[in-house]
Amino acid sequence: MRRSAAGKVSLLAVAATVLSMGAAAPPKAPPAADPPVKEPVAVGYGGAVASVDADASAAGVEVLRKGGNAVDAAVAVAAALGVTEPYSAGIGGGGYFVYYDAKSRTVRTIDGRETAPRSADAGLFTENGKPIPFEEGQTSGLGVGTPGTPATWKAALDAWGSKRLGTLLEPAERLAREGFTVDPTFRAQTAANEARFRDFPATSALFLPGGQLPVVGSAFKNPDLARTYETLGREGVGALYRGPLARDIVNTVRTPPVRDGATRTVRAGDLTEADLAAYRTESRRPTKVAYRGLDVYGMAPSSSGGTSVGEALNILEGTDLSKASQAQYLHRYIEASRIAFADRGRWVGDPAFESVPTSGLLSQRFADSRACLIRDDAALTSPLAPGDPSDPVPCASGGTAAPTTYEGENTTHLTVADKWGNIVAYTLTIESTGGSGITVPGRGFLLNNELTDFSFAPANPAVHDPNLPGPGKRPRSSISPTIVLDRAGLPVLALGSPGGATIITTVLQTLTGVLDRGLPLVDAIAAPRASQRNQATTELEPALWNSPLRTELEGIGHGFRQNPEIGAATGVQRLPDGRWAAAAETVRRGGGSAMVVRPDAG
C-alpha cells in the first residue's frame, strides 16, 4: 500500500500544492532508511508472504527464515501492518483467520470479530426512534467494539504456532521505534482524516507530527506502539483485556478525549472492563463448497464472506465460464453476486443470536433454484428479494428485499505459506479508514468503529434484520479469507482482500479469474473489477467503465457507476513443481508486496 514508485513524483506535486495555497512549507522531517523493494509477484521455495506492505511482508519472511511456520509469520506480518497500515488494522480492531494444516490436510478458522458491549441492544444507534447520523456513529466511542485482534493472535499461536508472541512482535516493535517510510498513500489517507484527527489530541499528536501532515519520504515513528507491543510480548495479550491497558481503552471509549473548542458531536460508548475481560474468539467450522472439482473453504458467520462467495460459486457452477465471452462472463458473475447479496441480507448475522441457515445457503439445490433467475438477454433488477434456503422454489421472485447496508472499506489482508505447506489467509480491520479516529492516549493505536457494521435500524421494517445490534453480538462482516484445495486435500491457492462489502465480489472475481479464465494469480488480482451488491447499479473500475464491455452490458439492462478502486487482494498459489507463487496488487493502493524465502531452487 505504501511506497509506490510514484512516491518520488508525488512529493513534488504535494509541495507545489502547498505553495500554491500560500501555506508555509512544513518543517523538514528526518529522512527514512531505504525501504524493502516492493514487488507484486514472487516465485520460489521455502514459503511465501503477500501483503499490502513491503516492511510487513519482510517481517513475515524473516520469521519463516528463522524456522517459524505460517501461523508465526502471519502474526508477525499482522503486527507490522499495525505499524505501517494503522488506518486499516491494528490491535484496536478484529478480523478472521483461516488456517490450512498440511499434516492433517484440514482447514480451521478463528472468528476474532469485535463484539458489542453487553449493554447494547437493537437501539444502540437510534435516538428518539430514529437512526443517528452515520458520522456520529463512525467517529465516536459508540461505534467501538471490544477488540479481537490480540486474542486472535493468542488463539492461533496456542493452537498451531511454534514461536513466542514476544519474538514475533520484535520486527513490528523495531519498525515502530525506528520508523517506516511515508509514501503518498499514507499521506493521502492522513489528509482525508485530517479534520477529525485534529479533534482528538492524542491522534493529532501521533499522526500529524508538528501539527502537519506527514511528509512523503520521511520516517514515521510510533514509540508508544513500540512500548505497547513490548508490554504484550512480555505479559501476553491478556494485558490488553485486563489491567492498565484495558482501563485506558475503556476510559477512552467512555470519555472520548476531544480537544477544547471542537464542534464535532462525539458520542461516548458504553464499553466496560468486564466487556474486555469476557472477550473470547470463536473456533468455527469453515464453509465449504465444491467448484470445478476443487474444494473452496471460507469464513462462516458471523462473516457473510464464506456463505456469499460459496453461494455465488454454486450459482456459477452450471455455466462453463472458460468458454464464455468476456461480456457473458461478467454478466454471469454480476448476477451471481447480486443474488448472493440478496440472500445474505436476509439470513446472515451472528449465529449466537440468529438462526443462520448456513448449510442451506451453501446447498447446490438452493443455488440452482436461484440460478434460474439469470437470463442471458436481460439483467436482473435490484433490490432483489431473497430466496428461502429451507424451501428452495425454482426461480422464485417474491418476498421483500433487504437493501445492502454500508460497510467501511479500509481493511487489510495477508496470505502466508511455509515450507511445510501450511497456509494462513488472514483479514484484519479497524473498519473505516482511520477507524473511529480515536487513539488511546499513550498507547499508539487507533480504536475500531466496527459496530457501525450493524444496521442502525432495520434494513427493511417488513423483514427481520439479522444484523441489528445486541449485547455481546458480533456485527456481520463481508471478510472473505479463502483457501482452495484439490480433492486430495492439497493446496491450490489462498487469497483475500479488504474493501468492505466489495471484499466478497473481489474474492469471487479473482477466484473465477484463476479457476475459470485461466489467469495467473497476479493477473487475476490485477484484472479490472466490477462489484454488484444487490444495488440498483454495479460499480465498475475505470478500465471497465471506459471499455466497450460496458456498452454491451448496458444493452441487456445493466446499470453502472464508477468506483476508482475496488479492493486490494493478496494471495499465494502452489505451483505444480512445488514452488510457491505469492501475488499482490500491481497498482491499487500503491501496489502490494509479494516475497518468498528463496527465489530460486538453491
Number of DSSP helices?
Answer: 20
Quick one: overall form?
A: globular
CATH superfamily: Gamma-glutamyltranspeptidase, small (S) subunit
| Multimerization status | single chain
Please give the radius of gyration in angstroms: 23 Å
Q: How many individual β-strands?
A: 20
What class would the helix/strand composition place it in?
Answer: alpha+beta
What's the pLDDT, averaged over the residues? 93
Please characterize this protein's 3D structure.
The protein is of the alpha+beta class. It has one domain: Gamma-glutamyltranspeptidase, small (S) subunit (Glutamine Phosphoribosylpyrophosphate, subunit 1, domain 1, 4-Layer Sandwich), CATH 3.60.20. Helix content is 34%, strand content 16%. It has helices at 7-20, 54-65, 70-84, 134-138, 149-160, 165-178, 184-197, 201-207, 223-235, 238-241, 244-254, 273-277, 305-316, 326-347, 358-361, 364-371, 502-515, 521-526, 542-545, 548-554; strands at residues 41-51, 94-101, 106-112, 126-127, 130-131, 180-181, 219-220, 282-284, 287-291, 294-298, 411-418, 423-429, 482-485, 491-496, 530-531, 538-540, 560-562, 570-574, 580-584, 593-598. Strands 1, 2, 3, 8, 9, 10, 11, 12, 13, 14, 18, 19 and 20 form a 13-stranded antiparallel β-sheet that branches. Helix 13 packs across helix 17. The longest helix is centred in the middle third of the chain and has 22 residues, at 326-347. It is globular and about 60 Å long. The two termini are 30 Å apart. 58% of the residues are buried. Residues 1-27 have low confidence and may be disordered.
